[in-house]
Amino acid sequence: TGAEAPPLAPPTPADGVADDLWALGLAPGTTAMTLARPELRARGVIEAGMLAIAASGERVVVGGVVTHRQQPESAHGAVFLNLEDETGMVNAICSPGAWLRWRAIARSTPALLVRGRVDRAQGAVTLVVERVDPLDLVATPPARDFR
Fold this sequence. Notes:
Layout: H1 13-24, H2 32-42, E1 59-70, E2 79-85, E3 88-94, H3 96-108, E4 111-121, E5 124-134, E6 144-145
Parallel strand pairs: 1-6, 3-5
Antiparallel strand pairs: 1-2, 1-4, 2-3, 4-5
């Protein structure tokens, strides 16, 4: 052993996000979604904030970290997914059929790409799920599932 520490490579932005999540449980500055946004934008994935101006019935793809998964008995088999990106929250509804088809991915993956149809009702904007794909991010906080 020596008296001096060996030189280390400077941390990457991804390292900073992972360190913040480990130490604080959240990323107060740059998030994993912020780092992924240029690639997502190139793939046609829109930000959660853009749902506010999307037309009802429009088909879109959004991506985000899963914050909640809920399946209340009163929903007759539907499952609600809440996603968050750097611009806001997305409320997504999986019909019983969509949940059956995409359950393995939607239940276990910490971040998702969701393709669906925009639904506007009573002042709320919801994404009706048609397809779910995993979204690979550098670090994500755990979701609060089925509580």
